[in-house]
Amino acid sequence: MRLDRMLVTLGAGSRSEVQRLIRSGAVTVEGSPVRDPSAHVEEKAAVTLNGQRLDTRLSRTVMLYKPAGILTAARDPRQPTVMDLLPDAFRTLGCMPVGRLDKDTTGLLLLTTDGTLAHRLLSPARHVDKRYRATVDGPLGEAEIGAFAAGLTLSDFTAQPALLTVESSSAEKSVALVTVHEGKFHQVRRMFAAVGREVTELHRERFGPLTLDPDLQPGGWRDLTEDEMQALRAAVE
Ligand code: URA
Fold first, then answer.
1. Does residue 118 have its Cβ closer than 6 Å to ligand 1?
2. pLDDT tens-digit series, residues 161-171
3. Is 52 helix (H, G, I), strand (E, B) or coil?
4. Do 119 and 133 sit in the same domain of this protein?
5. 134, exposed or middle or buried, with CB in 10 Å at 0-12, 13-18, 19+?
6. Which one of 43, 135, 211, 222 is most buried, counting C-beta atoms within 10 A?
7. What's the domain range around 86?
8. Which CATH number goes with the domain that contains 179?
9. Are residues 75 and 120 in the same domain?
């Protein structure tokens, strides 16, 4: 790829700004100054700008521990979004959330520059499982487990059968794991509402073959490992 294009993609500035920087000698490739903005450069080449080594990876897939109170959106004029938790360069790289978690839902959110992978992961036909830990008001038991297993009729669609595993249940509050194959708007909250329960906390633990890294804190993120990338691709082949 052209050097100026790479620098724009990495968020170093506008096309004219990076061309000026390159012509001024501020950029080196593999240790040598390169003053030609159209020079060809390989992804992962050693590139420095004003003496600082740039991370030249153009393809990124990361897992983020989404905290509560943050929108899953590329940008929003008023409220913070998940993109604000990542380095600025992720915007120019075109890294996008894979689906959505509600503002108050926490847990595993994938973001990727790979549009094809994202599309496949979200495709209803591929049935990528998502597992949530839900805290609800009121008891949960055989009736709710059966209703989830049968598939719930909501106002605009019938949710496919889902696995509900009750971890604890009392008259005031219950905690359960829910595994769904779909990802419709407010799906888990609406499924519980259909059996008369309100979700007070919702946390995604798993997305397909991936589990939220226990070392991540809310707001933290990391790149997927090569093994995780392979598992993700295999899940949607
Ligand atoms: N289901 C919901 O209701 N909300 C989410 O954020 C994710 C799944």
1. no
2. 999 999 999 99
3. strand
4. no
5. buried
6. 135
7. 61-124+210-235
8. 3.30.70.1560
9. yes
